[in-house]
Amino acid sequence: MKSILRQIKIKNQYLISLCSVSIVSLLCLFTRDYLDYKIAAYILLVVVSLLAMFLDIFPVLLSAFLSALILNFLFIKPYYTFHISNAEDTLLFVLFFVIAFLNGVLTHKIRKTEKMLQIKQVRSNTMKLYNALLDSLSHELRTPISAIMGAIDTIQSQNVTISEENKLQLYSEIEKASLRLNHQVENLLNMSRLESGVVEPKMDWCDINELFYNVLDNLKEDLKFHKVKVSTDENLPLFKLDYGLMEQIIYNLVFNASQYTPKGAKIELSAVYNPDVDFDYNSEKLESCVITVSDDGLGFPEEEIDQVFDKFYRLHNSKTGGTGLGLSIVKGFVEAQNGMVTLENKEDGGSVFTLSFPALVMNPKEISNE
Amino acid sequence: MSNPVEILIVDDEVQIRKLLEIALDSNGYKTFFAVNAKEGLSLTANHQPDLIILDLGLPDEDGQQVLKRLREWYKKPIIILTVKNTEEEIVKALDNGANDYLTKPFRTQELLARIRTALRNTNENAIEPIIEFGDISIDFTSRIVKQKEEILKLTTTEYNLLSILVKNEGRVLTHQYLLKEVWGNSYSDQTQYLRVFVAQLRKKIEEDSNHPKFIITESGVGYRFNTG
């Protein structure tokens, strides 16, 4: 309401100010014979104060001026003249004018300070976010770069002999560091794609089973010490989703699970077709495809669950590494496909991410018999 | 081979050129370089390399344009290197006549494998009448597919899809290309057919259809057949 009124053009503000004072005065006019004129003065003061809460300074001053004139002209005897007969009424008229004027000016000032504070707040929040970004970024990018530079320096140094085994170890460190760098750059690019609003999903028929195994193959190295289980229905239909975005979503969720669960933990992927949705349904917003990614790790601290999808948010007790971008990208990419993502802790330990999409469905049986 | 295979590398980044020079030279290829589109085109015309590695982000001309101009008369393999890993860009490059693509950062072993595949495909102009991979053999003359000497029952569509994949072994085939070739022009955006039949085919020919060794998914682009 406030913001709507604030956007009103200045010309219309004068109009509002004129109209409200005139209408209220007119209404008071009907009560002139029963009530003291001082009541009308108070009512007009209230009008001016209310206007001051929403309008700019000049329209408010106009209302103050106008209501003083009207008070004099219609309510202070003798009626219908600007002449005031006794000293008491003159004093009241002057006081009315001063109070209305001060009221307008003060309210306006308060509003101005409020606005300044708000801007300051937003600015400091942005700064906080920016610092969080710089902190995690400089750490996330510098660590692998140091690993690479350090390893190369050691290999190149002339006055020490390094065993063949150690050399191989250093090479593998360089490899790991570059993969990590690449992963972070990928996340940053995805984040900036989301931020700039250029993510336009290219919906195409997806075989969720294939998608799962494709992602798991890409994460083979990270999942070496985890038990991975895929449970999908044998007759799972095709869903119309963006394969590339889905790949990133599942990748980030499984990657997270692999990084933040202990060795030997179980990671489970499942996809279900919601049978309440007909195969040929069209525009209704029903969740036809429900995917879950769960693990039996430690779960998330309950009080932080609401924040995990926030940009740059990192759990308070989390180990080093990670920019806090992974899950916010998941959320962004899910929402780009009109889907929804939620996180819950399981009762028997571990957590489960549930993704649901209102996707078009196709029964493979309809086309497989050719 | 008596003459070493000559590879032209068109890339404006000196680090990438150096890396490729070392990697390719030590694998017995002869390399030469162009730092922009203009040089690339004139070197191709003058030296007729056996294969070109082309970076799409060149300083003087759009890589896709360079690719199109090369393809007007250069028939040998072109492998695209690009930092733009969007599916559109890759599909466009393949449509413009690239044999294969790799996105930066890439693994050298992967590049060498792609080069070998691309060169092999041009050497064998005539397709063998019988091709074998894993425990499967395809006889193109009789259209019979066997697994461990037993006939594998494939539908006509399955056979057509498999044979086009096998005949283009090692090469990425885009969704549109496969749909047009197997189902016909009007099916070029009906990817559901491809999804269903690839899944079916995998169940029949792959040892573990969830971890396919032969029919490899190229995300958002298409499929590639590897002989494992």
TrEMBL record, chain A:
The keyword Ribosomal protein does not apply. The chain crosses the membrane at residues 12-30, 42-71, 91-110. Keywords: ATP-binding, Kinase, Membrane, Nucleotide-binding, Phosphoprotein, Transferase, Transmembrane, Transmembrane helix, Two-component regulatory system. GO terms for cellular component: plasma membrane. It is found in: Membrane. It is a multi-pass membrane protein. It catalyses: ATP + protein L-histidine = ADP + protein N-phospho-L-histidine. Residues 136-361 form the Histidine kinase domain. One of its GO terms (molecular function) is ATP binding. Its EC number is 2.7.13.3. SUPFAM superfamilies: ATPase domain of HSP90 chaperone/DNA topoisomerase II/histidine kinase, Homodimeric domain of signal transducing histidine kinase. It comes from the Bacteria. The keyword Phosphoprotein applies. This is histidine kinase.
UniProtKB/TrEMBL annotation, chain B:
SUPFAM superfamilies: CheY-like. The keyword DNA-binding applies. One of its GO terms (biological process) is regulation of DNA-templated transcription. The modification 4-aspartylphosphate is found at residue 55. The keyword Phosphoprotein applies. Keywords: DNA-binding, Phosphoprotein. Residues 6-119 form the Response regulatory domain. One of its GO terms (cellular component) is protein-DNA complex. Residues 128-227 form the OmpR/PhoB-type domain. GO terms for molecular function: phosphorelay response regulator activity; transcription cis-regulatory region binding. PROSITE patterns: OMPR_PHOB (PS51755), RESPONSE_REGULATORY (PS50110). Residues 128-227 bind DNA. This is DNA-binding response regulator.
